[in-house]
Specification:
The complex is a heterodimer of chains A (about 140) and B (about 130). By secondary structure, chain A is an alpha+beta fold. In chain A, the strands form two sheets. In chain A, strands 1-2 form a two-stranded antiparallel sheet. The longest helix of chain A has about 35 residues, at about 105-140. Chain A has helices at about 5-30, 105-140, and strands at about 45-55, 65-75, 85, 100. Chain A has one domain (about 5-140). Chain B has one domain. Chain B has four helices and two strands. In chain B, strands 1-2 form a two-stranded antiparallel ribbon. The longest helix of chain B is centred in the last third of the chain and has 34 residues, at about 100-130. The relative contact order of chain B is 0.19. Classes of the chains: A alpha+beta (about 140), B mainly alpha (about 130). Chains A and B meet through helix 1, strand 1, strand 2 and helix 2 of A and helix 2 and helix 4 of B.
């Protein structure tokens, strides 16, 4: 039984949440990247998480029935329609004077960011606590 | 009267093992807090500890021939994972309640530290007996 598996689990949580924070940052940064063509305009991206199947302890114990860690299965683009705006002064406007704004919902992105940052903090706390416990275990009998 | 170190440490050595496993399971729940369809789990501490303490709880080997060597060593305690009853299941099928998991993790941490204290007290007693000081 590896005692350090907990660091792998919490670490995978950290990296998954950091991918989520990255997509939020990308979505917010591109919230105003308009385009004259609805097919090329930026679309909001969201990661999809997946629990990783892993044999943890070999033959006995928690093996086979337990998933360990989390991974990012992929990043999907939102299929919501881009918002059309009449803005003939914009150099990117099409022949009808319309521009298309990305389908990024800024409020949704902000709540997503808070959720990701809370989950990230949870994983950091798990790592810190288990590190303290392991150091205490190492000092056993001294 | 000979006293083995295992029996001297009593239930605490097994308890530490089960608490480490439980820490892994709870960390796993917290890591999957946003995974669609993930079901939160936990270890039933009482049954897991009973399984870890008794040789029958671990892996056993049957001897079919007189020349077979019987395996008496206790294997890793087969702790069974149970699904948590969700209080507020979310729409995507995830049943991890972050607050509940944090509370369980804190509870497990305190118990782990208590077990460590018991173990170090026993070891200190043993050192006192050995050195006679």
């Amino acid at each position: 039984m590896s005692s350090f598996k907990i660091f792998d689990i919490a670490g995978s949580g950290l990296s998954a949440q950091s991918v989520r924070l990255n997509t939020v940052a990308s979505n917010l940064a591109n919230a105003d990247s308009v385009s004259g063509d609805p097919t090329t305009v930026y679309r909001a991206r969201h990661p999809v998480f997946q629990a990783v199947q892993q044999k943890m302890l070999g033959a006995a114990g928690l093996a086979d029935q337990s998933e360990a860690a989390v991974s990012v299965k992929g990043i999907v683009e939102s299929q919501a329609a881009p918002q059309m705006r009449y803005d003939p002064g914009n150099p990117l406007a099409n022949a009808q004077g319309n521009v298309y704004a990305p389908n990024v919902n800024v409020i949704e992105e902000m709540t997503d960011m808070i959720s990701a940052s809370r989950a990230y903090q949870d994983n950091v706390e798990v790592m810190n606590t288990s590190k303290d416990l392991m150091l205490a275990t190492l000092k056993l009998g001294q | 009267m000979p006293v083995g170190l295992d029996s001297y440490l009593g239930v605490h050595a097994d308890a530490l093992k089960v608490q480490t496993q439980r820490m892994d399971v709870l960390a796993n729940n917290l890591a999957n807090v946003d995974t669609p369809g993930y079901k939160a789990r936990d270890i039933d501490f009482r049954t897991a500890l009973a399984a870890a303490g008794s040789p029958e709880g671990g892996l056993t080997m049957t001897t079919t021939d007189a020349k077979d060597i019987a395996l008496n060593a206790t294997a890793e305690g087969g702790a069974e994972l149970k699904y948590r009853v969700p209080l507020q299941p979310s729409l995507d099928g995830n049943t991890v309640d972050s607050q509940q998991e944090q509370a369980a993790f804190a509870d497990n941490t305190v118990h782990y530290q208590a077990t460590l204290t018991f173990l170090s007290m026993r070891l200190r007693n043993l050192m006192t007996a050995i050195t006679g000081q």
